[in-house]
């Protein structure tokens, strides 16, 4: 009877140790998961800020291109006007 009792006690103790180890391991896994989630969230926030900065840069470049387009249009109009004046001067000298 003593052997059966000792065997049962050892089995219960072994089961308790196994359950304790399992719970400890799952808590560690949960902490690791939380840590990974926090790092992942920080990286996503960093990428989001980078995308916002790029978006602002693109808008700024768009405004600069629009400004250059307006200036080129004025230069073309001025050039066209200058050609007409030059043509008039050439016609006057030819007469």
TrEMBL record:
Name of this protein: Uncharacterized protein
Transmembrane segments: 6-23
Keywords, sorted A to Z: Membrane, Transmembrane, Transmembrane helix
Superkingdom of the organism of origin: Bacteria
């Amino acid at each position: 009877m003593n052997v059966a009792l000792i065997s049962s006690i050892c089995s219960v103790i072994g089961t308790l140790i196994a359950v304790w180890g399992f719970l400890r391991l799952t808590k560690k896994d949960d902490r690791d998961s939380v840590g990974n989630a926090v790092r992942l969230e920080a990286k996503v926030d960093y990428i989001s800020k980078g995308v916002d900065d790029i978006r602002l840069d693109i808008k700024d470049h768009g405004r600069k291109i629009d400004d250059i387009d307006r200036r080129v249009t004025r230069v073309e109009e001025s050039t066209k006007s200058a050609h007409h004046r030059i043509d008039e001067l050439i016609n006057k000298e030819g007469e």
